[in-house]
Amino acid sequence: MEPDHPAVRRAAVLLAVEGVALGVVGAVDAVATAIGSPTDRALSFVVAAFALLTGAVLVLLGRAIHRRRGWARSPSVVLQLLALPVGVGLLQGHVWAAGGPVLLLAGATLWHLVAAGPAFGPRD
Q1: Which residues contact 58 (CB under 8 A, 6 or more apart)?
Q2: Inter-residue contact 84 to 106 (CB < 8 Å)
Q3: Nearest-CA neighbor of 6 among 104, 115, 107, 105?
Q4: Per mean pLDDT, which range of 34-38, 48-52, 72-76, 115-119 is the poorest?
């Protein structure tokens, strides 16, 4: 097996970072829902669960990318493309502390996934 491609390693790390960050957001949202008084408690818990689940999926995709599983590239790219308008929306809503990192992480992850393309070629 050839040595690990740096772009593969970086893409895997970035996916894991995104997943952990989204998991933290989901956990904080769940705790805030539990101790607070949201207008719609059930919907708030569903949003928190969705964030936790998506974070777990991103971590698993990062692991699959690190192991060079070709099937993991497409869902990873799709999730990054979905993150771009989320980041733009956060910036338009003047939530700079969240919008900037979302855009930077999504852009950097997309870049590394594209740069890692040759590492996912056919193996002998």
Answers
A1: 15, 16, 18, 19, 22, 79
A2: yes
A3: 115
A4: 115-119
